[in-house]
Amino acid sequence: MRNANSFWCRAAWPLALAGWLSSALPATPLRGAETDARRDATVAAVEKLMPSVVNIATIEIVEYTDPFSRMFREFWDPYYRHREADARYSLGSGVIIDEDGYVLTNLHVVRRASRVWVKLADGREFEAKAIVGNTRRDVALLKLITKGNEKFSAVKFAPDDDLLLGETVLALGNPFGLGGSVSRGILSSKNRRPPLENEPLDVADWLQTDAAINPGSSGGPLTNLKGELIGLNVAIYREGHGIGFAIPIKQVTDALSEILIPEVTKSLWFGARIKFGAYPLRVTDVEPDSPAAKAGLQKGDVVAQVNGKVPKDFIHCTELINDNPNHEVTLSVRRDGGLRNVTARMVPLAQLIRQKLGASVQELDKDEQAERFGFRRSEGLLVADVEPGGPADRTELQRGCLITGIDGQTTPDLLSAASALLGKRRGERVELNVVVRRQRGAFVQTRQGSVAVRVR
To answer: Active-site residue among 98, 138, 205, 413?
Structure first.
């Protein structure tokens, strides 16, 4: 029995060792489960990014004036106005930055567009409305027009200064209208100087890459291998080869913090700036004497809630601030380790201008409206009414005039006019650039000049 047991022990030991070795050694992968050597970090990033990259097409109404157009309109209206409008198509790129359909692109892609269409990587097409643009940084924001509560794949933003010189970058877009395209290169140079106040950016402020950026790629994303947005494609250097430029993500987020605000989106004076990003959100600036300042909001406050709701990010926060029929918003903010509530009542910009000038003005935001008064869209602010005995009335400013500038600053919209008047004290003099058009039959007389108004 002892010999038999020894035999069985000796016989079983190699088998047990073989079993242990087989469990310790890695299993040979099945043929169909082999790792694809082609699927590297670039491919993974592109697959992640493509659903958020869009193609942009626009129709631009070419505005022109000839000596006979007004006469034709006078005698043959309404038949004349039904002529096919002169239009020009253009192609560009963009990237979805929010699941609700907000699209980031260059302002020069959509600036003169009357209508904008956006095509997604899966072939779906949506018309989009322009929310706002920043001329100094060449950044614009669009919103897809949807029928339901559709959600979209959004790109993730890289941290503002997370850039590695020489790192691999990807440029995605719609070059020459060829559809979604990808090019790869390196980050050749970071921006070389801080932005200068009130000056447009140029190549000294942009990221440089040798990833191919061609006409039509403007507005498309420049990303790192994590699939994070580090810049917005903007231009190429035509005199050289392999030199393309992108607006750095820090400039993009700063632009969004300036343009996606109640003053721009709702023509309401709020007077506070919030840093673009994810929750929690920080207040970066508060204008003196603004509704936000009077409510007690301070620079450095961290926004915890808006009207009792926690904002998930900057865009959601802006929507909550705007979504108030009585223009009143309550923010819960963290400050000095405590939580406090501030309530601000926003002021319509048109009301602010009327308080200063004693005249009601309105934007020429529709072609039909502009044409009816004989002006071009966004040429200035139309004087809709003059308050008897007010500052404007004392200068003989009349209904139907167009205010094209205040103290040398152009005023194509309410925000620009309100900004020019905000710092003016009671009794201070401002100069209004005014255009007056008088029509006598088929003939129109245009007079340009300026009037001095003392604000109240």
So the answer is: 138
Phi, psi of 168 (to 5 degrees): -70, 130
Select which of 108, 189, 313, 367 is catalytic.
108
Residues 371 and 427 in one domain: yes
State what percent of residues in the chain have pLDDT above 70.
79
Cα torsion 183, 189, 192, 194: sign: positive
Mean pLDDT of the chain: 83
pLDDT value at 214 more than 80:
yes
Domain shared by 166 and 234, yes or no: yes
Note down the domain range covering 419.
349-454
Cα–Cα distances in Å, from 46 out to 125, 221, 333?
21, 11, 39
Which residue of the set 181, 183, 217, 218 is catalytic? 218
Task: Report yes or no on 35 lying in a domain.
Answer: no
What is the rounded distance in angstroms from the CA atom of residue 392 to the CA atom of residue 452?
Answer: 9
Asked if 218 is an active-site residue, the reply is yes
What's the whole-number mean pLDDT along residues 281-304?
95
Instruction: Give the CATH number of the domain where residue 371 resides.
Output: 2.30.42.10
Domain boundary at 194, 220, 253, which? Answer: 253
Q: With respect to residue 198, please indicate whether it lies within any of the assigned structural domains.
A: yes
Contact 324, 345 (CB under 8 A): no
User: pLDDT-based confidence at 128, cuts 50/70/90?
Assistant: very high
Q: Is 138 tagged catalytic?
A: yes
Contacts of residues 146-151 at CB distance under 8 Å and 24 or more positions apart, as own/partner, are 146/101, 150/101, 151/99, 151/100
Regarding whether 283 and 234 lie in a shared domain, the answer is no
Dihedral over Cα of 106, 108, 111, 112: its sign: negative
DSSP one-letter code for 197: T
What's the token pair of residue 233? 């494609």
pLDDT in the model for residue 7: 34
Query: What does the block give as tokens for 352?
Result: 């602010």
Select from 253, 280, 296 the last residue of a domain.
253
Q: How many structural domains does the chain have?
A: 4
What angle in degrees, to the nearest 10, is found between the helix axes of 414-422 and 349-357? 50
Whether 52 is covered by a domain: the verdict is yes
* pLDDT at residue number 58: 87
Both structure tokens of 26 = 């890695």
Looking at residues 26-40, what average pLDDT do you find?
68
